[in-house]
């Protein structure tokens, strides 16, 4: 890694300094710039433009500030998650009011303020296209299918729901968990959906589509425990893979790698043996063994991990550096891990952390998102601010 630069962006993100619960970057530049969506405890979704500038008289491009573009104000309670679809044309938001709203940028007609909205600073308008309802149960996490035809929503009623984005119709329900669902992920190869809950489990479901176009999901595995090394007395012992419901976080945001070969899950706890102390970790699963025990775990975390996100870019292997990782890939990928108070960046070519970013927020970190070129990482926090991390690898 040639350089890394972190900066807290001190702007008025949401009303009354309410927490920023989620953030997501539009993966393709539209109209020549990159949009950032944020979700706030004030019940609003806000759209921002990233402004890049040269700092410290060097030639390193990093985010210097953001420009306010629009407020999406249809939610009635806190918004917990925002996600652009893969095309960048649509944005989905889910929150405590139990709905997932799908938005589209109004490309014609200029700025159209909401009724009763007095905001002279609005530079673009987004219209609500579809509403997906979750029976008034709070929604903690959402994700799009790779083809943008469906949205997965994890809820406080222990349920995962699958919605058709063209109509808002609920087409499937997954009731595998016994506690709040705090993270969901959809396989980029469109074969699996995975959820993570405060019940200390992850559930893996296979997705299939019939000849008539109807989608269905079938449970493959529910993983909750890891077998310890033999303690010497001949008895097999196991430990829970994940923290219980007392973990101080609303979210356990999991993620697949962009190639779909790796699933990373936060909130992990690890013991190497019966007598060793517990440590915080992120568990990694291989695509071919999603129904089995994790194949690796990430060291170096001082606090519990609450969210993970892979960079969308596949990087060339570093010449002369042996491939220490458990994945024999012809390229390497970066994984950002948000713990309660820091961000740790890992590289699939090596086992240890690549970089550590600390002291950027005063409250718990809630979400993180990469730019499409893998050079910018945005971090959201319950302190009401977002930070940018510039990376050159």
Automatic annotation (TrEMBL):
<keyword id="KW-0227">DNA damage</keyword>
<keyword id="KW-0234">DNA repair</keyword>
<keyword id="KW-0853">WD repeat</keyword>
<dbReference type="InterPro" id="IPR015943">
    <property type="entry name" value="WD40/YVTN_repeat-like_dom_sf"/>
</dbReference>
<protein>
    <submittedName>
        <fullName>BA75_00259T0</fullName>
    </submittedName>
</protein>
<feature type="domain" description="CAF1B/HIR1 beta-propeller">
    <location>
        <begin position="5"/>
        <end position="389"/>
    </location>
</feature>
<keyword id="KW-0539">Nucleus</keyword>
<dbReference type="GO" id="GO:0033186">
    <property type="term" value="C:CAF-1 complex"/>
</dbReference>
<dbReference type="GO" id="GO:0006281">
    <property type="term" value="P:DNA repair"/>
</dbReference>
<feature type="repeat" description="WD">
    <location>
        <begin position="72"/>
        <end position="105"/>
    </location>
</feature>
<dbReference type="InterPro" id="IPR001680">
    <property type="entry name" value="WD40_rpt"/>
</dbReference>
<dbReference type="GO" id="GO:0006334">
    <property type="term" value="P:nucleosome assembly"/>
</dbReference>
<comment type="similarity">
    <text>Belongs to the WD repeat HIR1 family.</text>
</comment>
<keyword id="KW-0156">Chromatin regulator</keyword>
<keyword id="KW-0677">Repeat</keyword>
<dbReference type="InterPro" id="IPR036322">
    <property type="entry name" value="WD40_repeat_dom_sf"/>
</dbReference>
<dbReference type="GO" id="GO:0005634">
    <property type="term" value="C:nucleus"/>
</dbReference>
<dbReference type="InterPro" id="IPR045145">
    <property type="entry name" value="PTHR15271"/>
</dbReference>
<feature type="repeat" description="WD">
    <location>
        <begin position="132"/>
        <end position="173"/>
    </location>
</feature>
<dbReference type="GO" id="GO:0006335">
    <property type="term" value="P:DNA replication-dependent chromatin assembly"/>
</dbReference>
<dbReference type="Pfam" id="PF24105">
    <property type="entry name" value="Beta-prop_CAF1B_HIR1"/>
</dbReference>
<dbReference type="InterPro" id="IPR055410">
    <property type="entry name" value="Beta-prop_CAF1B_HIR1"/>
</dbReference>
């Amino acid at each position: 890694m040639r350089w890394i630069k972190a900066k807290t962006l001190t702007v008025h993100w949401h009303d009354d300094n309410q927490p920023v619960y989620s953030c997501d970057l539009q993966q393709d530049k539209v109209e020549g710039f990159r949009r950032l969506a944020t979700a706030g405890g004030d019940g609003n979704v806000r759209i921002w433009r990233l402004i890049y500038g040269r700092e410290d008289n060097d030639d390193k491009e990093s985010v210097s500030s953001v420009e306010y573009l629009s407020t999406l104000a249809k939610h009635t309670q806190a918004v917990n998650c925002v996600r652009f679809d893969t095309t960048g044309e649509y944005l989905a938001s889910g929150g405590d009011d139990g709905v997932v709203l799908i938005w589209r940028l109004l490309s014609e007609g200029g700025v159209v303020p909401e009724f009763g909205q007095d905001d002279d600073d609005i530079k673009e308008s987004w219209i609500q296209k579809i509403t997906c309802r979750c029976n008034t149960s709070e929604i903690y996490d959402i994700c799009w299918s790779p083809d943008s035809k469906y949205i997965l929503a994890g809820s406080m009623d222990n349920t995962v729901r699958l919605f058709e984005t063209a109509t808002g119709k609920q087409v499937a329900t997954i009731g595998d968990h016994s506690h709040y669902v705090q993270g969901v992920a959809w396989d980029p190869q469109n074969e699996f959906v995975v959820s993570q809950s405060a019940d200390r489990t992850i559930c893996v479901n296979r997705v299939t589509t019939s000849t008539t176009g109807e989608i269905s999901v079938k449970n493959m595995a529910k993983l909750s425990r890891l077998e310890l090394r033999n303690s010497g007395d001949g008895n097999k012992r196991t430990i829970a893979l994940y923290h219980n419901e007392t973990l101080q976080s609303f979210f356990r945001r999991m993620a697949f790698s962009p190639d779909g070969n790796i699933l990373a899950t936060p909130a992990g706890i690890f013991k190497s043996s019966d007598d060793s102390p517990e440590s915080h970790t992120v568990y990694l699963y291989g695509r071919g063994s999603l129904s089995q025990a994790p194949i690796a775990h990430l060291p170096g975390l001082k606090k519990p991990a609450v969210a993970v996100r892979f960079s969308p870019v596949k990087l060339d292997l570093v010449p002369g550096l042996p491939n220490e990782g458990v994945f024999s890939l012809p390229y390497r990928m970066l994984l950002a891990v948000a713990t309660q108070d820091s961000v740790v960046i890992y590289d699939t070519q090596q086992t240890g952390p690549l970089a550590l970013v600390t002291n950027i927020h005063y409250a718990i970190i809630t979400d993180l998102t990469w730019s499409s070129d893998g050079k910018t990482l945005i971090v959201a926090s319950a302190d009401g601010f977002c930070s940018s991390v510039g990376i050159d690898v």
